């Protein structure tokens, strides 16, 4: 299963979150670290749902990039 993740560059770190998993948010010193941490967070989140007998989330989010031309 693949989840969309959003990566945001901050002043001193990178943040990442999974829109289909509310509250699944991480911060890392680099983009690479943030990607590793969000994958671990998603795995942990899914395992918690399984242990609690909760249904697994359906993936709803997609992403596209839109190019804007401005001067």
In short:
The protein is of the alpha+beta class and 71 residues long. It has one helix at residues 31-51, and strands spanning 6-9, 14-17, 25-28. The chain has a domain at 6-51.
Strand and helix layout:
Blueprint: E1 6-9, E2 14-17, E3 25-28, H1 31-51
Antiparallel strand pairs: 1-2, 2-3
Task: List key phrases describing it.
alpha+beta; 3 strands; 17% strand
Structural account:
- This protein has a 3-stranded antiparallel β-sheet with strand order 1-2-3, covered by helices on one side.
- The protein has 71 residues and is α+β, with helices and mostly antiparallel strands.
- It is 30% helix and 17% strand.
- The relative contact order is 0.21.
- The protein has a domain at 6-51.
- It starts with 5 loop residues before the first strand and ends in a 20-residue tail after the last helix.
Percent helix = 25-40%
- Annotation, overall tally of beta strands: 3
Fraction in beta strands:
15-25%
N-end to C-end Cα span? 40 Å
The Cα radius of gyration reads 14 Å
- Counting helices, strands and paired strands, the structural category is alpha+beta
Tally the helices: 1
